[in-house]
# Entry
Amino acid sequence: MGNKVKAYISIVFSMAFFAFSYVWFKIANQAYRPLTIVFFRLATSIVVLSLFLYLTKRFEKIRKEDRIYFFFIALFEPFLYFIFESHGLTLVSSTVASVLIATIPVFTAIGALVFFREKLNRLNYVGVIISFTGILIFIVTGESNLSFDIRGIILMLCAVLCATGYSLILRRLANNYRPVYIVNVQNIIGFILFLPVFLLSEGRYIPDMVFDPEAALAVAQLAIFASCGAFILFGYTVRIIGVTRANLFANIIPVLTAVFAYYSIGEIITIEKFTGIIIMITGLYIAQIRFSYRKKLKEVYKN
# Structure
């Protein structure tokens, strides 16, 4: 199996874990406060990844020139991203949240073009537009219980900008460090940044916490599959196919979230939304085509 095939399989699983995370958060939020969820999510992921790195002897030495990048990658995600996302998710439905997150490819494509000159061909940009159009159709058509508050929309858009910054910095680090090591370091730094915020805002509620098996399981799933698995697989994919193409797969998050939410917490999927799904998948396929469309046309005319 080629590296590109592995990369595409990895990114699909990564986005699936991200998609499910919105529903797991909703379940956990029924018993625990937003920042409490983030606190235990990060703590669990650090223990899991540190143990793995210790047993496999895969700890690495961070180059001096890369320390600032590790700090900012952690600042953007998980620290700021989780703060914006956790509060935003309390004000919008899981499906609406995932649709807003699906705008990440647009911002990332712009950022990669500006900072790294990482270009897509014209056909790819058409695919991005088509895919995003499908997402818009997905959210605005049909009847559903997709609830939102304008404050939640703003918070989720701030999370989108943080995710974009994270992706752009990850592009620099992905070729020099193993994805699992990058994720562990970003979670450790993020946890240190997050700890005083958590203690000041929600620390006083810890003594009154009651163990809830379903919510605790959701937090564990967030830690293992979202904070560990999703980021590791995403980092691996960025190394192989680049940050812009990897982020384009964020457009499948709303579809996966909606399906998962339908079966787990009853959010409704209408027939009309499948039109948006088909359009989104078509655009995603077009956006991944690597050949130059103009060059291909010249070859056809020559023959």
